[in-house]
Amino acid sequence: MKITLKMPKRLNRSWGVDVLLFLLLGGVACFMALPLVFTISNAFKPIDEIFTFPPKLFVRNPTFKNFTDLVGIFSDSWVPFSRYVFNTFFIAIIGTIGHVILASAAAYPLAKIRFPGRKLLFSIVVLSLMFTAYVTQVPNYMIISYLGLINTYWAILLPAFGMTLGLYLMKQFMEQIPDALLEAGKIDGASEYRIYWQIVMPIVRPAWLTLIIFSLQSLWTNGSVTSHKYIYSEQLKTVDYVFGQIANGGLVRTGPVAAVTLLMMIVPITVFIVTQSSIIQTMSTSGLKE
Amino acid sequence: MPGGKPGRMLRSKAARVWTEMKKNRHAYVLMAPYFIIFCTFTVIPVLLSLVLSFTNFNLLEPPRWIGWQNYARLFVQDDIFLIALKNTMLFAAITGPISYIACFMFAWLINELPPKLRAVLTLVLYAPSIAGNTYLIWQLLFAGDSYGYANSFLMKWGFILEPIQWLQDTRYVLMILILVQLWLSLGTSFLAFIAGLQNVDRTMYEAGSIDGIRNRWQELWFITLPAMRPQLMFGAVIQIASAFSVAEISIYLIGFPSVDYAAHTIVTHLVDYGTIRFEMGYASAIATVLFTIMLTVNLVTQKLLGKVGE
């Protein structure tokens, strides 16, 4: 195992192709970065620059006025702004944790335990990914209202716990784990629950760190899309609902809206950077000597 | 004896399954919470929608059973659906494979960078999926007057003399839609591939180089791709789902309905009937047809992916 520490990274690599490939990567990256650059620079534009035609990508006279205006708008709010912030964080965090844990718990048996019904359950999961959500909205509403979840956090949290994507993603990653490793755990007397939590989960760390990004992003930014359907009381609404209201304020509000767009992006991006840089190579065979 | 041999065999099989199930009860306990929720909020709505596709349902009156009428109407009477079908197929045939390969290539390139740089580059490439206002940039680029970036560039260099109405001209809208989708395409499967590459056992590369693998392309085909087969399958399903259910970018960028239905897709057709005309039965039939198409494409793709690295 000593040899692996030297990272056989430069194996089979030639400098020429390296340079060429990374030039390509750089070029594409510049183009892909446009929305980020645009959003950041827009948030600091004074009102006349926002309306310049044709619009400029970069800001010329940066100002914090959009942000101070935003604070002014919030101070008029009927429900304290902190309440909306709490709702958003609560839904995003609890929803993500619940989804990651429940989906991986269900993925482990599907990937590694042979039990009757395994194939059937898995194909139902994959099939459901192919069905468009536009027509299931009405049945979904009927179910949520039948269960009495209208106007509670659960109307958003419960469906988020059971999203399809997470189970599928986790199952695919768990499939790569060598069976011998799990056998070893069993021989040492670990229960299935322990194997799941202490052997499987640490190995598929890159998978659930990625899943956190997906789940958090969808709960954070699409919160309003689902929440306005099931949640009517003002105290339970999320930040992006309020931001939507601000955007409806017309031209005067264009500056604050630019600021809002930037603010809404900060949390997903922070989570993104933290999770992406903590995806450390976990070899599927670490701890296994053959 | 009534219920002789076949009956007994059936019973013994049931008994065997039951002991298997009892032996694996932990599996069911682990799965229960997720699957109860999943069935309630995903499986039941899908089943309900499949049933609704055989009814006439306008959300006000109770559904009325009409058999295959919705489907017959879809293929025989609805010309616009056929346009939507053609557009969607063309769109998916181009964006699906290209964005799938792009997702993998970029993930593969980024994977060799040190973690910090990798995180930043991943973010930049994923940016279009994370930023909410992406349509704005394309609207600027393809604005119909001479100030639009595309027009002003082409006019400055003398390729055209008059601005092109990019987003209104039926000759261009579908192409623009494809371009924007490709730009947006480094999404879910891209991140899954990046994580997947991290899970590939490093020692295999050493073993491979001893076994005579000479360059990075051989390494890719014989080691990396086969080791990533689970992620590749996942990515394919996600890409198929997103390539065939394109709607939002068409609605926001080109308009709804688009000029002469040039950018009309199956899902925008569905949105039309489901949320504007309130013909839920008909909308469900559209969804079912789309579902069948995606399923077929998925089966073929999974077959092809099984051959990777052989």
From TrEMBL, chain A:
Question: Keyword set for this entry?
Answer: Cell membrane, Membrane, Transmembrane, Transmembrane helix, Transport
The yes or no answer to whether the keyword Ion transport is present is: no
- State the organism of origin: Paenibacillus azoreducens
Q: Which domain of life is it from?
A: Bacteria
Q: Does the keyword Transmembrane helix apply?
A: yes
- The record's principal subcellular location, in a coarse class, is membrane
- A Pfam family hit: BPD_transp_1
What is this entry's stated membrane topology?
Multi-pass membrane protein
Instruction: Give the transmembrane region(s).
Output: 84-108, 120-137, 143-169, 195-220, 257-275
The UniProt entry, under PROSITE patterns, shows:
ABC_TM1, PROKAR_LIPOPROTEIN
Which GO biological process entries does UniProt record here? transmembrane transport
Return the SUPFAM superfamilies for the record: MetI-like
What GO cellular-component annotations does this UniProt entry give?
plasma membrane
Classification via InterPro entries: MetI-like (IPR000515), MetI-like_sf (IPR035906)
The UniProt similarity line reads: Belongs to the binding-protein-dependent transport system permease family.
Give all residue intervals belonging to the ABC transmembrane type-1 domain.
85-275
Localization of this protein: Cell membrane
Q: What is this protein called?
A: ABC transporter permease
